[in-house]
Amino acid sequence: MLVQMAAVAAGGALGAVMRWSVAAAVQRLAGGAFPWGTFAVNALGSLLLGFLFVWLIERSAAGEWLRLALTVGFLGAFTTFSTYSLESVRLIQEGALALALANVLGQVIVCLSLTWLGVQLARTL
């Protein structure tokens, strides 16, 4: 149990730092009021989670500690659904209904699609 907890904690620490780094870089590049940084992190995280879930369970002999570190720890901290939710509410409160709708629908459609793609990629490689 201690090994699993340490794996999740280590992965989570790295995932949180990567979330901050990637989201800030993407937002700086994209600019504007739309939360592109969070969108990019959620999309990339969805692809990676779909891929790693299948790869680590169906296609590799990786230990449970690695699966926990990468999926629960790293990607759990890397993806930002709570931030996505708050940004959507703030856009609504600011009267930017079109941006809020684009954020909500775009992230759901893109992230579900990329999770599916990750699963497919892992099964075909």
Give an overview in words.
This protein has one domain (2-124). The chain has 125 residues and is an all-alpha fold. The chain has helices at residues 2-30, 36-58, 64-78, 81-93, 97-124.
Number of strands: 0
Number of distinct helices: 5
**Terminal-residue CA separation:** 32 Å
- Level of helix content? over 70%
Q: DSSP strand (E) fraction? A: under 5%
Radius of gyration: 16 Å
Going by helix content, strand content and strand pairing, the class is mainly alpha
Instruction: Summarize the main sheet.
Output: none
Mean pLDDT: 95
The global form is globular
The total number of structural domains is 1
Give the ordered list of helices and strands: HHHHH
Low-confidence stretches: none
Keywords for this structure?
mainly alpha, 125 residues
Helices and strands, with pairings:
Layout: H1 2-30, H2 36-58, H3 64-78, H4 81-93, H5 97-124
Helix pairs in contact: 1-2, 1-3, 2-3, 2-5, 4-5
In a few lines, what is going on in this structure?
The chain is an all-alpha fold. It has 5 helices and no strands.
